[in-house]
Amino acid sequence: MPFADELIHFDLACGIGIGADGHWRGWYAVRVDADALSALGLHPDQPTSVITAPSPPSWWHAAAERNAERRSGG
């Protein structure tokens, strides 16, 4: 991994998901120090980090979610 241990942080939260199935869900967050991102050219203040294209259409997102459910057996 290109980051030193002290520059990256992982957080995990678990709980019963929102929905009728009552299955447990997990959420995670990955935080990286801004200086480490800057060294890789990924800092938000750099012009290359701006969105340069429109978001995919809603059907694309729906298809991706269906495919993910098929792969996970859900």
Output the helix-strand order. Answer: EEHH
Q: Could you say which overall geometry the principal axes of the C-alpha atoms support?
A: flat
Sheet/helix structural class? alpha+beta
Cα gyration radius (Å):
17 Å
Unreliable segments of 5+ consecutive residues: none
Helix content: 25-40%
Mean pLDDT level: 77
Oligomer: single chain
Strand order of the largest sheet: 1-2
Helices, by number, come to 2
Biggest β-sheet strands, sense, barrel = 2 strands, antiparallel
Strand content: 15-25%
Rounded to the nearest angstrom, the distance between the terminal CA atoms is 32 Å
Number of strands: 2
Characterise the protein shown here.
The structure is a single chain. The chain has two helices and two strands, in the order ββαα. It has 74 residues and is of the alpha+beta class. The protein is flat. The longest helix is centred in the C-terminal third of the chain and has 15 residues, at 58-72. Strands 1-2 form a two-stranded antiparallel sheet. The protein starts with 7 loop residues before the first strand and ends with a helix. It has helices spanning 34-39, 58-72, and strands spanning 8-16, 24-32.
